[in-house]
Amino acid sequence: xxxxxxxxxxxSIEYGRPSKRGRVIWGTLxxxxxxxxxxxxxxxxxxxxxxxxxxxxxxxxxxYTIYTQPSDGHFQLIINRETGLFHTVYRSERDLGRVQMKxxxxxxxxxxxTFAVEPSEGGGVLKMIWDDRxxxxxxxxxx
Length: 143
What we know:
- The chain is mostly beta strands.
- The protein has one domain (2-141).
- Helices cover 0% and strands 57% of the residues.
- A six-stranded antiparallel beta sheet has the order 1-2-3-6-7-8, with no helix packed on it. Strands 5-4-10-9 form a four-stranded antiparallel beta sheet, with no helix packed on it.
- A hairpin with a 2-residue loop joins strand 1 and strand 2 (9-14).
- It is globular, with a radius of gyration of 14 Å.
- The mean pLDDT is 96.
């Protein structure tokens, strides 16, 4: 679980942490062009105590499930209104919306899937790091 205080908001991400274990992650274990829940077992839950905005996507305070839409060169974060699901269940009609995530390569492979929430100018950055990649989505906190 990750808990962060960003600009007066309490943000948490609760998730299972799958391991690389020598496997090829991107494009193989996590296939391109298909939705993927980043985590293991129970759904990955994202909670915010204040309204956030990722790009043009307004995310009201509350509980959500995080999914992604990975493809080679394009990676989207999906914020879904439905919670309490197993990681293999996805109902797109419950999506709040999608946000493009910026990809950077890591200096060394990261063995376990890792989420981070870091402060930045006017808000924060949600990061997901695994294997040789880091995906990031900046957000602002409503005042």
